[in-house]
Amino acid sequence: MNPYLEIHPEVQQALADGKPVVALESTIIAHGMPYPQNVQTALEVEAVVRGAGAIPATIAILNGKCCVGLSQQQIEHLGQAKNVWKVSLVDMPYVISQQLDGATTVAATMRIAALAGIRVFVTGGIGGVHRGAETTMDISADLTEMGQTSVAVVSAGVKSILDIGLTLEYLETKGIPVVTFGQDAFPSFYSRQSGFASPLRLDSPKEITRLLRAKWELGLNGAVLVANPIPEKFEVPAPQMEWYITQALHAASQQHIKGKAVTPFLLKYIAEHSHGESLEANIALIKHNARLGAELAVAYTRV
Ligand code: PSU
Ligand code: MN
């Protein structure tokens, strides 16, 4: 086994027995939501995965080890510690070799999940091509990682802090099929619509499983993005969200926020200024994604 990996015994056993396992990221815990809702949500998401018949494996770097499956204490630690790195691929060598703690982004979580042999990963929203990327070149490593690592990524689509059209173009360039579950429109995190049609639509975990098998058995490495629209009753009206996002982008530019700080800055700004409404939606959609991800993992291990 890879010496940098530390797989929780329950996860190890499930993988050895061919049971369904769902990977979960930790940047959303340490950098995407405030305490204590972050810790509570992380634990609830794990419970949803279990309820749907799969084993949850929340992934983070602790003391330089790539931990796959965390204890409740470890999740508490990530949710409260001030010195937890946000770890994308570029940060992994430093954080691991310096034996630090890091919460993993979609890109880093996917890589570690794949090393452990996990095929299904659930998150809230992926990183993508930022608005203005034609001058800043700010494109998340989530997209390049999805272009090469064979893990299904369940998300609520792409948040409109990003340029959704350019993100869909980039996904296509990288050969990443984008499948929306149960509707024709591609969703945009807080909203079931985005103004863009989904490139693909499938209506059951079984059909998505067949698409995953076909892709990977053909040697077409890389992710499939499974977009799961937020339940209607938790949607935040798009014009309202657009207002917060415009404010957040303006503040980021005024304060010269750059590089890896951009996404956490925007997320925090929006959460603080939308009076809890966006946080409530965020919590609802990640649990909704956890259920679909678990159903997908179950279907995938059955085939
Ligand atoms: N988008 C969200 N919520 C999040 C993130 C993105 O709506 O929590 C986090 C994820 O961990 C994602 C990361 O992988 O931000 C992307 O960061 P960057 O843009 O710096 O690659
Ligand atoms: Mn970036």
Automatic annotation (TrEMBL):
<dbReference type="InterPro" id="IPR007342">
    <property type="entry name" value="PsuG"/>
</dbReference>
<feature type="binding site">
    <location>
        <position position="138"/>
    </location>
    <ligand>
        <name>Mn(2+)</name>
    </ligand>
</feature>
<keyword id="KW-0479">Metal-binding</keyword>
<protein>
    <recommendedName>
        <fullName>Pseudouridine-5'-phosphate glycosidase</fullName>
        <ecNumber>4.2.1.70</ecNumber>
    </recommendedName>
</protein>
<comment type="function">
    <text>Catalyzes the reversible cleavage of pseudouridine 5'-phosphate (PsiMP) to ribose 5-phosphate and uracil. Functions biologically in the cleavage direction, as part of a pseudouridine degradation pathway.</text>
</comment>
<dbReference type="InterPro" id="IPR022830">
    <property type="entry name" value="Indigdn_synthA-like"/>
</dbReference>
<feature type="binding site">
    <location>
        <position position="86"/>
    </location>
    <ligand>
        <name>substrate</name>
    </ligand>
</feature>
<dbReference type="GO" id="GO:0046872">
    <property type="term" value="F:metal ion binding"/>
</dbReference>
<comment type="subunit">
    <text>Homotrimer.</text>
</comment>
<feature type="active site" description="Nucleophile">
    <location>
        <position position="159"/>
    </location>
</feature>
<feature type="active site" description="Proton donor">
    <location>
        <position position="25"/>
    </location>
</feature>
<keyword id="KW-0456">Lyase</keyword>
<feature type="binding site">
    <location>
        <begin position="140"/>
        <end position="142"/>
    </location>
    <ligand>
        <name>substrate</name>
    </ligand>
</feature>
<dbReference type="GO" id="GO:0005737">
    <property type="term" value="C:cytoplasm"/>
</dbReference>
<dbReference type="GO" id="GO:0016798">
    <property type="term" value="F:hydrolase activity, acting on glycosyl bonds"/>
</dbReference>
<keyword id="KW-0326">Glycosidase</keyword>
<dbReference type="Pfam" id="PF04227">
    <property type="entry name" value="Indigoidine_A"/>
</dbReference>
<feature type="binding site">
    <location>
        <position position="106"/>
    </location>
    <ligand>
        <name>substrate</name>
    </ligand>
</feature>
<keyword id="KW-0378">Hydrolase</keyword>
<comment type="similarity">
    <text>Belongs to the pseudouridine-5'-phosphate glycosidase family.</text>
</comment>
<keyword id="KW-0464">Manganese</keyword>
<dbReference type="GO" id="GO:0046113">
    <property type="term" value="P:nucleobase catabolic process"/>
</dbReference>
<dbReference type="GO" id="GO:0004730">
    <property type="term" value="F:pseudouridylate synthase activity"/>
</dbReference>
